[in-house]
Amino acid sequence: MKIAVLDDYQDIARELADWDSLGAEVDVLTEHIADHDALVDRLAGCEVVVAMRERTPLPAEVLRRLPDLRLVVSLGGPRNPSIDLKATAELGIVVSHTGYLPHPTAEHTWALILAAMRGLPGEDRSLRTGGWQTTVGRSVQGATLGVVGLGRLGSRVARIGQAFGMRTIAWSTNLTEEKAAEHDVEAVSKERLLAESDVVTIHQVLSSRTRGLIGAAELAAMKPTAWLVNTSRGPIVDEAALIEALRQRRIGGAALDVYDTEPLPADHPLRDLPNTVLTPHVGYVVRDLYEVFYRDAVEDIAAYQAGEPIRVMSL
Questions:
Q1: To which CATH superfamily is domain 103-278 assigned?
Q2: Annotated catalytic, 268?
Q3: 15 an active-site residue?
Q4: pLDDT tens-digit profile of 261-294?
């Protein structure tokens, strides 16, 4: 059996699971391969592909050119829109998924919020070049945290905000006052959330309904001092509209971990905007979650080899 492990940027997969127990040839790819032809060439002969969440899409065009592929293990929960599940079903390819932990992304959201509100990236750069106290930060206590999507992640982020003494409000299409009250959060309209929040943080799944959810009109409705935080998916925010709002300083800034194109191109305009805090989609990149990912992947592959049931991802 030949196994390909995709997008292991930190070259850590071999360290965190017992791949030798599978008695297979394991090819670990530490670089992202965006070109479909190059990807097909690299995956030729593979019976199993381990996909790191949505880093490398597996559309029908690619899947149909991999005749030996029988199993795709998606690292993360039971959803990965970058894998064409209709095509895998037609081709007889099994798609399984691993476990997931929600707390790393919630923690990283708060790392971004605090870094943004206290101007930490700029102070760090200044201090390293001889500077001293170049900014005046803002406290989160008493500020308003607007949570877009009060699910598993959003409710965690809200709870931490409450511990800091923030007023917490939330909106999503189906959020009810009763559901928000369960988390001591006030359910408000989208318009109120944008107008009243000092920090707007996004915690929604990317779908046709949420793509472009935060566009030019929504950015214009925010306070000129407010920060937009996105650790969910890049396309939930209209990137062009955001860049323009940041250039014109219509909002306080943006703290981002996710982007329309990943890895973020070296010449991308976001890299040059000073009113940003940028991280390279590392919200979930912590050792304890990676241990879950790779341990479960090896277990799924072993179960597949033995003809035993595995966690199958469904349409």
A1: NAD(P)-binding Rossmann-like Domain (3.40.50.720)
A2: no
A3: no
A4: 999 999 999 999 999 999 999 999 999 999 999 9
